[in-house]
Design brief:
single chain; 502 residues; alpha/beta; Alkaline Phosphatase, subunit A; 8-stranded mixed β-sheet; 4-stranded antiparallel β-sheet; 17 helices; 14 strands; 34% helix
Amino acid sequence: MWCRFLLAGCLLSASCAPDPADTWKPRLVLLYAPCTVNADYLAPYDAAVPYTPNLAALAERSVVFERHHTECGQSSLAYASILTGGQSDHHGVYTNPGQLDEDVYLMAEAYAAEGYETFLWLGHPSTPPRRGFAQGVDAENARAAGLRGDDPAFAEILGKLRDDPSYRAFVMTNFTVTHGPYGKGNLAPFLARYPEERDGVTDADLFGYVDLYRENHFSLSWNYPDAVERLALSPEDQGRLSAVVELLYKSNVHLLDQLFGVVMDRVEAHGLVDESLIIFTADHGEVMNRPTAKYRWSHSNQLAPEVLRVPFLVQAPILEPRRYAGVSRSMDLMPTMLALSGIALGTGHPVQGEDLSAAAAGRASPPDLRAPSHTSVLVASVFKQMYEGEHMRDWALVRSLVPAVDPELMWVASRDGDHFFKYAKLDPETWGVQAFDLASDPGETNDLFDPEKPAHQRMERELSAYKRGLVDAYTGPVRSVPGELDASSEELETLRSLGYVK
């Protein structure tokens, strides 16, 4: 297992940690950012989880950010935030899939400017190179697949790093094995290895509910009450279904952990751990059939805390393992990673995020940050299916809450410590501000918003200003009549591959 690093005979701490920019610089920077990862199902965020041993090992040598929030629960926007250090009014992506503004400076461009050879394994269909996500990477180094540890191209990079001390590489990957409808291929080996995770689920339950979920994933995710009625699911059926689907998701998370473990094993086998900056994060999380969520087994367009809170672990030999309790945001990754790599952005490439490297190293207190998030603007393919064809019934709930392609319909939220505020559609006719204490009420069961409280009044003003800034920066078409929308075949292919449309 990976050893702890020593410098000048002492384990690095707040008192002896040097400024990263003046000392160590990584030769390998690995940004591992899979899709749809609920942090509560990972050992770094729940010590009782046994099925992510590789991430547990990473956490033992990492800074684990406990309150890390993404910009949005949809992939194009979330990855754009990670790669650009900003939000939609900075990177220009409002839809999923979306087009990244070619004038925005990307993380890979910053590393390329410092002499790193840059590589992307973009396995997520919402972020292909043709949509602007490969800026700063030579075409032959941008692959439309997720990174696997046994990839010969990755082995070549690691071999060159081992053999050539002057060589440096930036590697980023995204992909998904945990996106709904959750796959069943890893379920049997998962249950054989972790039989205690069954928790009362029988083989008969698996036989009865795995295919029921997968065949009805769309309606169960987007219009649960109607699906329950149509499928005649009793309360007992619903409980068993939920337990089975959770097992499916856990088995997928275990597969993700295994894939990550192979990549880390290859880095270690080449003797590169002490020369590497390793980042593990995700674009967004996932709702796992929470009763108070509007959309079940989903992540889009509802600003659920378990969707917005995502894993963020940073491993480098200059960082003492620690828990980072402050709020951090997806837009903070780029400035923080570059600072830990000894790279200065300069005034010509502004970002909206904060450099958290000093706080991560223990040389400064975590800054007092609030994490803003927002929903996306619907794309034409989704909107047309909401109003046309045989699947209109499944879209009834979404249609009632988002009846147009219009940025004014975006919901916005902000996390302040463990206080979570959002401005959203409370029902099809009513907008309102809600407030929740995530420390005591992670399931959003008790709305604490009090319009008489000055702190709540301030957050209401901040949410209004945040939304207005996003809306004012939006440059896409505003449409309300489905017949006017021309959904492209490429857009449909992307959304169907992810299970967003039929």
